[in-house]
Amino acid sequence: MKNKTYLHIAIVLTCTLFMSCALFIPGYNDYATAKRYYERGQYDPAVHAVIKSLRFKPDDEKRIALLEAAYPMAVDEHQYELRRLESLSNTSKWPQLVRTYEALQRLGRGVDGIKPVLIKRADYTLSLLVGDYTASIEAARPKAAEHHYQQGLVFKKGETKQEQKSAAIQFKLAMGFVPEYKDAANLYTEARENAIFTLLVSTFRGDRDLTSFLRDKMMMAQTTTSKEFLRIVSRDQLRTIMSEQGLVQAGITDNNYLEIGKLSGADHILTASITTTYRPVEKIKNQYDQEREVTVRKETYTDSAGVKRTKNIKGKVKAKVRHFKKSTGGTLTVNYQVMDVNTGELLFQGSVNRRDNFKHEWATYRGDVRALSDRYKWLVKQEEIFAPSESDMMMKMARSIPKEFHRKIHDHYSN
Q: Residues of 220-240 as b/e, b for ≥16 C-beta within 10 angstroms?
């Protein structure tokens, strides 16, 4: 029974070692990924992955065979899609046709790129046929641009910011197919200006240091992309608005956000609250006896043949270990909601959560170090360190929140 167990362990270890080594074979990961894609019927990514793997090992027959199997399947799928799209009368087919032609062009470029590598380094001629779809792409691009342009004109007639945003997106898509298509650039700029939502960020509720930090950092995280349809009113801008409109003299403070929002032209108000939990530092001490049989001395003796020999004299050594554990932890949660200034309606809400834990172990001993287990030999080399304070732990978590917080707000206005 024991022999079977040892054999099983040996097989597992051998397989694990083989798999670990395989990870370091150039292009192996790409080849394994290509096989998975192929088995799932995802032929495009299978082709691109196996081509990448062939650049590392062009003489691998299995990789070549996988390319020769996956490429025709990928082409057949796209050709079927082309026939389906071309049978449609709706103008929405043109953007899809461009994307399908471009996918075929990328596949072809990949195959053309690997052919000379296989000839030079593996003396193998790849017989896969590659089509040129340049003319088809160039012919379809203006029609795809026109489709989005017309969609933009329809949306632009709307009066809501959401309709104006949809118009701007359509004009931008049109320019993606033909960079200077008609007057799409001017129409995009006009629609985008009409679509921008102004978001007033109120003072967050919670620990003052954390709330000030998170509020300021969240607003600073705004990127060029996130500014496309969202304008965040900063604290300095809010003070300017209040000063210019004489709101302070009218008795309106920076806590009257609904009133300020209406007067400042803001569309929405963001409110948030921060809650934290903290587990105080806990220090645990345990004592253990350690004992081990070791060579305590060596003795020299003369055997029956008169030859001098040395033998080890075994003995038990002991030690007492004091094992220390120190730990603490905490959580930080930002709950937020966005409301419409004019109606007071709750538009959306969400949260960002963080958790942090601190753990440290070390040990001291008295007695013979040879009695210690390997684990305690390592622990006695460790020194006690200070656990982070509650404020340090909270600030550490707070630093990782602003980008995700802003992304969630931005994603809402980008959809």
A: ebbeeebebbbebbeeeebee
Helix axes 257-264, 235-244, angle to 10 degrees: 70
- Does residue 129 have a pLDDT over 80? yes
Q: Are residues 267 and 377 in the same domain?
A: yes
Residues 159, 163, 169, 172, Cα dihedral to 10°: -30
**Domain-embedded: residue 337:** yes
pTM more than 0.85: no
- In this structure, is residue 9 part of a structural domain? no
- Quick one: which of 322, 327, 325 has its CA closest to 387? 327
19 is a domain residue = no
Q: How many CB atoms lie within 10 A of CB 350?
A: 15
Q: Which two tokens mark 293?
A: 């049989």
334 and 231 belong to one structural domain: yes
Residues 122 and 164 in one domain: no
For residues 233 and 325, membership in a common domain is answered with yes
5 located within any domain: no
For residue 5, pLDDT over 50 is answered with no
Per-residue pLDDT at 152 exceeds 80: yes
Of the candidates 127, 138, 66, 78, the one whose C-alpha atom is nearest the C-alpha of residue 107 is 78
- 377 — pLDDT class (breaks 50, 70, 90): very high
**Count of domains observed in the chain:** 3
Shared-domain flag, residues 226 and 369: yes
Identify the DSSP state of 32.
H
- Identify the residue with better confidence: 246 or 42: 42
Is residue 161 within 8 A of residue 183, CB to CB? The reply is: no
Provide DSSP, 284-311. EEEEEEEEEEEEEEEEEEE-TTS-EEEE
The boundaries of the domain holding residue 64 are 25-132
251 with 378, same domain?
yes
Same domain, 179 and 222: no
Q: Which residue has the higher pLDDT, 13 or 243?
A: 243
Distance CA 72, CA 40 (A): 16
- How far, CA to CA in Å, does 235 sit from each of 81, 203, 238? 53, 9, 5
Q: Are 76 and 129 in contact (CB under 8 A)?
A: no
